Amino acid sequence: MKDTYYKKSLIILLTLTLLGSCINPYFCRELEKVTDIPLIDNIQPEAKSEVLEPIPQDESDNSDDEQYKKKNETKEKEDKKKSLEEKLKTIKEESSRVKKEIEKTKKKKNSKLAKKKDLNTQVGNTKQEIVSLSQKITSLSQKISKKENEVSNKESEISVARDLLKSRIKFNYMTPELSKLEAVMNMGKYSDYLCRLEYQAKISDNDQKKLNELKETLTQIQQTKKEIEQNKYQIEITKEKVETKKKQLENELVDISNEVYSIEKEEAAWHKNAENLKKQMNALQAEIEKICRELASDTEYVGGDMIWPVPGCFSISSPFGPRSFDGFHYGVDISQRGIYGKNVVATNSGKIIFAGWRSLYGICVIIDHGGKRTSLYAHLSSTCVSLNQTVTKGQTIGLVGSTGNSTGPHLHFEIRENGKAKNPMIYFKKAKAQ
Ligand SMILES: [Zn+2]
Question: How far does residue 141's CA lie from ligand 1's centre (Å)?
């Protein structure tokens, strides 16, 4: 009886529960076990979910459509990549033309700068020459004024001497001549008179002689003065010539400075042009790489272990990770004595998605290994592979160098997954042990 009552109570409870909206299948199954009444048949949640699934369409048609769509997309991407590569090629050509122009302008500028330097030296020399000539002129002017003083002194002396001589002559002239009778009458006086005359004549002679000497000295002084003046005049002419030359050189200097200025402007314009082209190239390269990654995204990783990119050289001079001087190091630097020119090999098989110059990386190669994994080899001295080429694991792709932003020969080696840099060492536990 008790058992029947228990069963009936449970059935009532179940009915009430079923009337509600939530049914616990687990609870129902437990009830079934106890009651032997199949309760869950009407619920069938699994079957419900099957019904909700879309009605399967013709499978082969669907996959054909998708394949067709994918093929079209791939073709579109490949066409776009091709057109971008063409564009990149044109810009590269333009860039190399601009580089040549920069070189040409630089040469032109250097030649003008050399001329400017030479002109500066010449102007400096003429300035020195002018100073030296001015000093000479000053010294000669002093000499001339000294000579002028001498002339003036001599002229004074001459004037004095002349006056003296004049007065003596006057005195002689004024002295009355004794008549013969007087002379006979005063024989003594006459002899005195004669003596006096002789004496006076002698003095006059001396005066005259002295005067002549003075005049001669004066002539010599004047002659010397004249020579000095001529010398000064010559020097003044030379100075004038040097000044004219200096002015001419200074004019030339102004001209050449203007030329250098305009060449520098031209040079700056070329540099700006080159910078723009570089930006365009980088953008195109990035776009091409993106397409390459997208094209490669469907392919699977080539598989197998990666091998060390510089056989025999395992020394790491700068590991992957944060770096004090440039923020973050996205790869490892492999470097050791004598590494320059060593073979750099493909770490695994794949397709070359970049081979060439890439700003800071210098000569650089990027290999796509499928499965969105790429490896990058930078600062090479040269590369022997080209874009879209397929390479096999261990194949030489270039030589270790120091191109781009590099302080010495080394290989900067990166591995990226989905474009994100990974620590390459995690792939080379085996390589390290080699
Ligand atoms: Zn590096």
Answer: 76
Tell me yes or no: is domain 299-433 CATH 2.30.29.30: no
Q: Closest by alpha carbon to 249, among 119, 113, 129, 125?
A: 119
Burial class (CB in 10 A: 0-12, 13-18, 19+), 114: exposed
> How confident is the model over 275-332, as pLDDT tens digits?
999 999 889 988 887 887 777 666 788 888 999 999 999 999 999 999 887 789 999 9
Q: How confident is the model at residue 58 (pLDDT cuts 50, 70, 90)?
A: very low
Q: How far is the CA of 429 from the centre of ligand 1 (A)?
A: 20
Beta-carbon count within 10 A of 278 CB: 15
For the chain, the structural domain boundaries read 2-52, 105-164+201-277, 299-433
Q: Which two tokens stand for residue 202?
A: 């002698």
Place of tokens 């006459």: 190
Amino acid (1-letter code) at residue 218: L
The Cα-based distances of 32 to 48, 82, 305 in angstroms read 21, 69, 57
Length of the chain: 434
pLDDT of residue 413: 97
Beta-bridge partner residues of 202? none
Instruction: Give the CA angle between residues 403, 408, 409 to the nearest 5°.
Output: 70
**CB-based contact 352:365 (threshold 8 Å):** yes
287 CA → ligand 1 middle, Å: 23
Beta pairing class for 390-391 and 350-358: antiparallel
Kindly list the protein residues that place their beta carbon closer than 5 angstroms to ligand 1, a single-atom ion: 333, 412
Which residue, chain included where needed, has tokens 């009915």? 15
